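hey so i finally got around to running the thing on that chain from the lab meeting. sorry it took forever, my laptop kept dying and i had to restart like 3 times. anyway pasting the input first so we r on the same page abt which one it is
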Amino acid sequence: MSHADHLVIALDNERSILASLERLLAIHGHPVRTHENAEEFFSAGPPKVPACLLLDQQLDDGATGVEVHAEIQRRNWNLPTIFLTAYGNVPLVVETMRSGASGFLTKPYDPQQLLKEIDKALAHARSLHENDRKNADLLAKAATLTPREREVVVLVVAGLINKQIADRLDLAEVTVKLHRGRAMRKLGAGNPAELAQIAIRTGIVG
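ok and heres what got predicted. didnt touch it at all, straight out
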């Protein structure tokens, strides 16, 4: 990965930890953004590029890492999170992993193990980012459908053939074929199965 296409964010209440993380990650080509408290972290907003978060459990502003992680999920930020804390115990590990954390490391951390966890988290982040891009592209395509084309797509996905759709919409069968063909081209669907997948992903059908 190049310096421009990803980010590692560190949220920790110890400046010395943040400084050491910045040095380690810079050596290995990772751009870093650091925060000392949850308010500052959330004020910065979600990253625009694939990113992961290194998160301490005990923060100066009274928040906990678990609470920060829950808020990240509530806001639907695609931010794989690695807990990096001196307060490791079995119940906490179980809680964080069940809540969807990418990893859990205790301080003092093994730099090589941390780098491996970061690589995994960034790979996941890149996958999530690409999926979001594809969904946005599909939504843009879906927005180009006419109301009639959307109606035809819904009925195709419901399993109706052209003649049945024509009867349902009081159209000529050739007109249904035209609407169906245009809709499939606009959505980039090569067959009815692909059309159904796209219709579900874009909310054309529930």
